Amino acid sequence: MPAYSISDLADYFSITQRAIRLYEELGLITGMPGRGHGRKRMFTSSARDRLERVLRYKRLGFTLPEIGELIKILDSRDTKSSSINDTISVIGAIRERLYKRLMDIDGAMHDIGGYESASRKTLERSARTKLANQKTMG
Questions:
Q1: What are the residue ranges spanned by the domains of the chain?
Q2: C-beta pairs of 125-129 under 8 Å, 24+ apart in sequence
Q3: Structure pTM?
Q4: E strand or H helix that includes residue 4
Q5: What is the CATH number of domain 1-60?
Q6: Which residues contact 87 (CB under 8 A, 6 or more apart)?
């Protein structure tokens, strides 16, 4: 089983070691018991995958407590109907929130694409005008 040092994870995800320690303190990820060579914190590949998930949700705008709740739900093995119904409700709310963000991203991509296209046309016109001016002057 591969093991990753805290510095390996920090480098791979371009985050600080302090951020990883914070996620560990909050229970979002769990290091391996004990320490590796040089007394470094070590993490399993499943902890690495979980960190990747934490960072994805963070990029999506979830707060760390929300991420903790979401991970708790995703890790839940509770089979009581009431718990499952609660989980379904929470997941539905999260899905709706993500869908709204997806629509916002789609709108932003459309806006940016339009601006990019207009900018390219302006550059092309400018280049043609410059070329035409050079031909008339030379």
A1: 1-60, 76-138
A2: none
A3: 0.67
A4: strand 3-5
A5: 1.10.1660.10
A6: 73, 76, 78
Q: pLDDT of 40-86, one tens digit each?
A: 789 999 999 999 999 999 998 889 998 998 888 878 777 777 778 88
List C-alpha distances in Å: 125 to 43, 111, 113, 115, 133. Answer: 55, 21, 18, 15, 12
Q: Looking at this protein, which amino acid is placed at residue 17?
A: Q
pLDDT in tens, 78-105: 777 777 888 888 888 888 988 999 999 9
Structural contact between residues 102 and 60, judged by C-beta atoms closer than 8 angstroms:
no
Distance CA 83, CA 81 (A): 5
Residues 6 or more apart in contact with residue 6 via CB below 8 angstroms = 17, 20, 21, 31, 40, 41, 42, 43
Task: Classify the C-alpha dihedral 11-14-16-20 as positive or negative.
Answer: negative
